[in-house]
Amino acid sequence: MNYTISNLRDVRQYQHIVANRIWEAWWKQEGHSAESVAVGLAEIVAATDFPFALVAHQNGEYLGHILGIASDLSSRPDLSPWLAALWVDPTHRRKSVALKLLNAAQEQLSKIGHSKIYLCAIEEKRSYYSMRGWVLIDHEEKLPALDIFEKNLG
Q1: Which helix (H) or strand (E) holds 36?
Q2: Tally of domains in the chain
Q3: Domain region containing 111
């Protein structure tokens, strides 16, 4: 499968789609408005190097995205930076899109000087991240229960 990964600031036609996917997957059930997610994403797009959003796309079609942000868990402000909101549309899953987005985001963080990064995920994704070099460092029991991973980039 041949596709491109771009910074969202360079392919803003996907900005509404990314905001909608983030809202539907994580924020809607928490009672946040779609508009608040769109505003937050607009702030990311307006940044120069960091934070950032990367989008996988092919022939004008959105495939998925990932964010690079300062913090993804308010309970862990000591950890930074984070990869967050990794999403691949269902019709494009199991085609290495998620892995390529992860790798591209890791490269971006390494380029701007980060040597250690973090992410959190539901327990069902533990083996996915562990098999890709992420080390489980903590587990939060509050619902939804989340694993916290770190990865050394150096």
Answers
A1: helix 34-46
A2: 1
A3: 4-152
Query: Are the C-beta atoms of residues 104 and 65 closer than 8 Å to each other?
Result: no
Cα(151)–Cα(154) distance, integer angstroms: 9
In sequence order, what E strands does the chain have?
Answer: 4-7, 52-58, 61-69, 82-88, 116-122, 135-140, 146-152
Q: Which residue has the tokens 């079609």?
A: 61
Measure the CA–CA gap between 28 and 10, rounded to whole angstroms. Answer: 27
Q: CB neighbours of 142 closer than 8 A, spacing ≥ 6?
A: none
CA 5 – CA 13 distance, rounded (Å): 14
What digits encode the pLDDT tens for the residues 40-67?
999 999 999 999 999 999 999 999 999 9
How far, rounded to the nearest angstrom, does the alpha carbon of residue 74 sit from its chain's CA centroid? 16
Tell me the pLDDT tens digit for each residue of 124-154. Answer: 999 999 999 999 999 988 767 899 999 999 7
Tokens of 13: 């036609």
The CATH number given to whatever domain includes residue 11 is 3.40.630.30
Candidates 121, 99, 13, 19; CA nearest to 57 is 13
Residues 111 and 118: their CA atoms lie apart, in Å, by 16
In the 8-state DSSP scheme, what is residue 145? P
